[in-house]
Task: inverse folding
């Protein structure tokens, strides 16, 4: 499955007109990074980990107190040009071995498209619902930024199974370094459908610049505080 998704991605990335010709930019097909330099992003992420360490420690404690299992959760995700990497999050769900674990009803998916989302997910713990709402569960990805697997701003990295299901037009979002935040996250997040997410990611990659990255970072703060589109 992983091999097929990567091969599919690389083949399509070699194909012209990934993005509509009116907005096509040669930088996109080349995957050139034009945002905040990654060396600066890694430094900022490291400082953020230090400053936010009290929140990280409290979150770890609450997760362990409420439910059994590791407080961290890692997943194989697809990054730039189909590269696989381990993405880290705080665990927000019960483990399958936990008696409280319940599978969600697949017919109650609240988001159109490839990526499934449930406004009411029975797998989620009480602490998990809170840290998801305010994106605290995503903070461990600052470590992914320090290691260079992710950036502060960019398209969200998809699961291998999701990438396998991408239509050809969506594969262009793999032409950039995946981000902790992005144009989609500050434009409605889960309240938007997958096609809109792809269009926003394409727009970001086409217009990527240091100024745009800074703007998205500034808008991310009130978006997180108000929990707009988060569930």
Result:
């Amino acid at each position: 499955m992983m091999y097929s998704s990567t091969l599919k991605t690389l083949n399509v990335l070699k194909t012209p007109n990934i993005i509509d010709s009116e907005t096509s930019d040669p930088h996109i097909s080349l995957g050139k990074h034009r945002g905040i330099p990654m060396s600066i992003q890694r430094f900022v992420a490291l400082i953020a980990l230090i400053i936010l360490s009290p929140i990280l420690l409290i979150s770890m404690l609450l997760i362990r107190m409420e439910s059994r299992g590791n407080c961290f959760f890692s997943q194989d995700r697809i990054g730039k040009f189909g590269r696989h990497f381990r993405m880290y999050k705080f665990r927000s769900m019960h483990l399958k071995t936990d008696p409280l674990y319940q599978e969600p009803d697949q017919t109650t998916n609240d988001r159109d498209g490839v990526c499934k989302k449930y406004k009411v997910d029975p797998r989620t713990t009480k602490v998990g619902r809170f840290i998801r709402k305010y994106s605290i569960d995503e903070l461990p990805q600052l470590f992914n930024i320090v290691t260079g697997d992710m950036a502060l701003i960019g398209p969200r990295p998809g699961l291998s199974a999701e990438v396998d299901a991408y239509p050809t037009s969506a594969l262009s979002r793999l032409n950039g370094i995946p981000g902790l935040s992005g144009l989609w996250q500050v434009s409605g997040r889960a309240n938007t459908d997958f096609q809109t997410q792809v269009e926003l990611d394409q727009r970001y990659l086409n217009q990527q610049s240091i100024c745009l990255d800074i703007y998205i970072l500034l808008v991310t703060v009130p978006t997180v505080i108000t929990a707009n589109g988060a569930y």
Remarks:
- The two ends are 28 Å apart (CA to CA).
- The chain has nine helices and five strands.
- The beta strands are 72-78, 84-90, 151-153, 158-159, 179-181.
- Residues 210-226 form the longest helix (17 residues).
